[in-house]
Amino acid sequence: MTWRRWLQVILLLTPGLGLIVALIGTVVYIAIVQSFGLYNLTGESLLSAEHWAGVLERRAYGRAVRYSLYIGILSALFSVALAYPLALWLRKPFTGSVAVGAILKAPLLVHGLVAAFLFINVIAYHGVLNQFMQWIGLWEGPRRLQNDSNAIGVLILQTWKNMPFALLILTGAVQGISDDVLDAARDLGAGSMARFRKVIAPLTISAMQAALVIIFIGAVADFSFQVIAGPTNRQSMAQLMVFYKDGGRWHDAAVVGVSLMVVALVGSALLAFAARFILSGRRFR
C-alpha cells in the first residue's frame, strides 16, 4: 500500500476514530499528570511523586489491588467456564433453542444496580433464601449471607451478568466450526472431551480470549456490585478511588485510577496469554 493510500485511510478514520482517541487520550493524560501533583483542584499544583509514594506504601492500596484481581480473574474464568458448554449445546438449532438463548442472554438487559438489589433481597437476613431454608428445616434460624468476607455474592453477580456476554461471543465462534472437522475428529476416535480439547478449544481460542479480557476489565473496575454486595472489610480499587475523591484527595484518587488502568491492561494481557499457552500446550498432547 502506497503512502497516498495510507493517507486516504487515515483521513477517512480521523472524523470518528480521531475524536475517540483524542477524548480518551485527554482523560488518560489528565489522570496521569494529576497523579503527579498537577491540575490540583483545591490548591497549588506542584510536580511531585510524593502522592505515588504515599499511596503505594499504604496497606489499603495493596489489599485493594489483590482484591480487585481476585474478583476480576475469577469472574472472567467462571463466566467463560459456564458459557462454553452452553455455546456447544446451542451450536445446532433445536426446538426451543431460540427461546433458551434469549432467556440466557436476558441478564444483558438488566442494569447491574437492579440485579444487585434483587440479589440482596434474596440473601438478606430475613430474605427469601433464609426463609426457604428455615421452612424446609435445614436451618434453625436466619444466617447472615450478605456482604460475606469472601465476596461470594459479588462473584455470583459478576458471573450472572457477564456469562451471557461470553456466551454471545463463544456461540458465534463455535457455530463457525465446520461439521466436517468435528466429524473427521470423531471418525479418528476422538471422544467428546478430546474433540473439545484438540479441535473446538484451539479453534475458538481467540473468542475465548476476547471474552476473558473484556469481562476481566469490567469486573476488576466494577463499583456498583462491590458497594451493594461486597464485603464490608475490603475495598476494591474503584471503591478506594472514590473514597479518596470524596475526601478531597484528588491526587491520591488519580494514583489509584492510573494504577487501575495498568492493572486492567497488564492483567488482561497475562490472562489472554495464559489461556493461549494452556490450550496450545494441550493441542499437542
Please describe the topology of this protein:
Layout: H1 3-35, H2 50-56, H3 59-89, H4 97-104, H5 112-123, H6 128-135, H7 152-175, H8 179-187, H9 192-203, H10 205-220, H11 224-229, H12 237-246, H13 250-283
Structural features, described:
There is one protein chain. The protein is an all-alpha fold and 285 residues long. It has a single domain, classed as MetI-like fold, CATH 1.10.3720.10. Helices cover 74% and strands 0% of the residues. The chain is globular, with a radius of gyration of 23 Å.
Notable traits:
mainly alpha, 285 residues, MetI-like fold
The CA-CA distance between the termini, in Å, is: 41 Å
Total helical segments: 13
Q: Using only CA atoms, what is the Rg? A: 23 Å
Which band does the percent of strand residues land in?
under 5%
Class per helix and strand makeup: mainly alpha
CATH fold naming? MetI-like fold
